[in-house]
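Severity: low
Component: inverse-folding endpoint
Summary: output formatting inconsistent between runs
Steps to reproduce: submit the following structure tokens with default settings.
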């Protein structure tokens, strides 16, 4: 039986309409668009009771945000998204009070609904379509304070010719003529040995992938031959754009998209060591480090808290603020894709986190955190809570 042209056209249109839209989480918001969208219907709010059951976990990260928010330094970053510094600070204070005084999870949620407004991230499509969550950690790597036959790849301290502006913005490289230019790329730094001979070497690692992993995560603990642990945190970067190694390998057909986690990358690097450097150099961003005591610090210069510190685009979102993440993770206590619905604090940023559709969860220190972080790439929703105006 033949079908008419009209029927065929209708079927084609219907099929096109039914085709799923490919989500691009790297899309910037249209100029003038809001990064936060208020959720006025309480029926659309997520279940916010989680913090009542684990108050100590939340309180630690909350206290760190409060200390930063209460500083004179914090005021320069407000207002943002119609949120004043006073409102952001008061929101943290009141949330902490409710966490301490609420007698039940139901009472806690009821008080939040009465006193707070909830805002959803505009997400990848500008209308709350969702956020892609990845994760980062502090890896524990093997290394040496001196260069040896085994340990030949250094982590470097901040070079003196790197110029920073207000708020830590990277301005570039100051030349001998006093003029500023873009700082060299990763390829230029490494191929030209531009950092050598300046006494900037902090620690030596076994291979370039280990150093790259430290760069991507922004911190690293290094196990020395005598068993001691040397700790290094983020000090700055060269101001260049970040390119994902996993994305580069997938685009080149060397890894499958659903098998592009850190374990797969390590396997590929062991099998094709001669090809590794070329792919590492596709990432122009280069990170510098500083020795630290205790835990690593995020972009607010406060200690990051496992599963309670979130990294977002600080040009869009109010830093230091209270957020609620609604997604799922696999591994550790999140086996089989268990829900990850919990309060966090917006305390960090990252090289790949440059839109309203991206966020990065800090997962802690060591092998388990590294394994989970390397396999986390999940969609979800991101919310901010502020006291009602």
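Observed output (run 2 of 3):
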């Amino acid at each position: 039986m033949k079908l008419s042209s009209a029927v065929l056209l209708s079927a084609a249109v219907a099929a096109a309409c039914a085709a799923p839209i490919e989500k691009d989480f790297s899309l910037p918001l249209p100029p003038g668009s809001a990064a936060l969208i208020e959720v006025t219907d309480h029926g659309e709010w997520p279940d916010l009771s989680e913090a009542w059951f684990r108050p100590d976990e939340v309180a630690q990260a909350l206290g760190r945000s409060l200390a930063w928010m209460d500083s004179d330094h914090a005021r320069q970053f407000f207002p943002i998204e119609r949120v004043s510094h006073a409102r952001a600070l008061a929101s943290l204070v009141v949330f902490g009070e409710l966490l301490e005084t609420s007698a039940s999870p139901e009472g806690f949620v009821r008080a939040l609904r009465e006193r707070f407004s909830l805002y959803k991230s505009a997400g990848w499509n500008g209308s709350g379509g969702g956020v892609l969550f990845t994760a980062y950690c502090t890896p524990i790597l093997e290394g040496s304070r001196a260069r040896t036959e085994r340990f030949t790849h250094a982590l470097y301290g901040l070079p003196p010719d790197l110029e920073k502006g207000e708020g830590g913005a990277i301005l570039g490289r100051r030349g001998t003529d006093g003029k500023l230019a873009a700082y060299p790329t990763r390829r230029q730094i490494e191929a030209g040995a531009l950092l050598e001979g300046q006494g900037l070497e902090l620690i030596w690692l076994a291979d370039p992938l280990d150093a790259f992993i430290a760069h991507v995560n922004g911190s690293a603990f290094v196990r020395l031959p005598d068993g001691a642990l040397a700790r290094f945190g983020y000090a700055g970067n060269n101001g260049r754009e970040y390119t994902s190694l996993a994305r580069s390998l997938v685009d080149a057909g060397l890894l499958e998209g659903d098998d592009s986690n850190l374990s797969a990358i390590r396997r590929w690097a062991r099998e094709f060591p001669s090809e590794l450097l070329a792919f590492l150099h596709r990432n122009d961003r280069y990170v510098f480090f500083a020795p630290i005591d205790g835990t690593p610090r995020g972009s607010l210069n406060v200690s990051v808290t496992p599963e309670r510190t979130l990294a977002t685009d600080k040009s869009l979102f109010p830093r230091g603020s209270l957020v609620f993440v609604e997604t799922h993770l696999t591994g550790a206590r999140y086996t089989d894709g268990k829900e990850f619905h919990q309060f966090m604090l917006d305390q960090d940023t990252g090289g790949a986190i440059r839109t309203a559709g991206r966020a990065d969860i800090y997962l802690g220190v060591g092998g388990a955190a590294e394994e989970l972080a390397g396999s986390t790439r999940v969609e979800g929703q991101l919310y901010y809570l502020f006291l009602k105006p």
